[in-house]
């Protein structure tokens, strides 16, 4: 059953990977989109493609979620009620241990994964509370459930997303606003290339000898979570490829 047709969804980080696939699958369900990201031209390409193919409305907004003022300007300019907010924008930088990591990498992860998610959650949740309706879906990570060496700050940011999700649900207790999280393990997207500053060989080695999850795999789960009946709230899902059993246990065919 399609309970999504006619709704409006904001998706951050929609220019690639999980964000793009989520936008595409929502559009296939008849959801109008407001897609954000830093690559203005890429957003335009996605808008033109989805509107031509699927007869839905797509609005684009190019800004960095790290910028609180830009987030406020974006939300202030909205002239529609938002039914779904997918806080997807996020990244990892480096795999250095705590005693050797780059402060700039830490700042980038904290400002994007935590602050950016908080800024938009703060601004959109207030509107949803007033409407007594809506759904916030945060894209977390298995790293938000299990920390690992070399991921001290990335794991910390995703543990923060878990805490933010749970606290947001409690802050909205007694309303009809739903709050959820989706927590993937290894997904083959641009994620590893960003983590390794564009080093494609290092990025490819992350997935060597195993079949990772795809962006579509996670997008399908996000759409499933959003499409539950209004009284059903899925708080979290942890998704691994079959070859992965924990943050550090990955079976590889040599």
Automatic annotation (TrEMBL):
Pfam families: adh_short
Top-level division of the source organism's lineage: Bacteria
Membrane-spanning residues: none
InterPro entries, A to Z: NAD(P)-bd_dom_sf, SDR_fam
Keywords: Oxidoreductase
UniProt family annotation: Belongs to the short-chain dehydrogenases/reductases (SDR) family.
Record-given protein name: SDR family NAD(P)-dependent oxidoreductase
Species whose genome carries this gene: Gracilimonas halophila
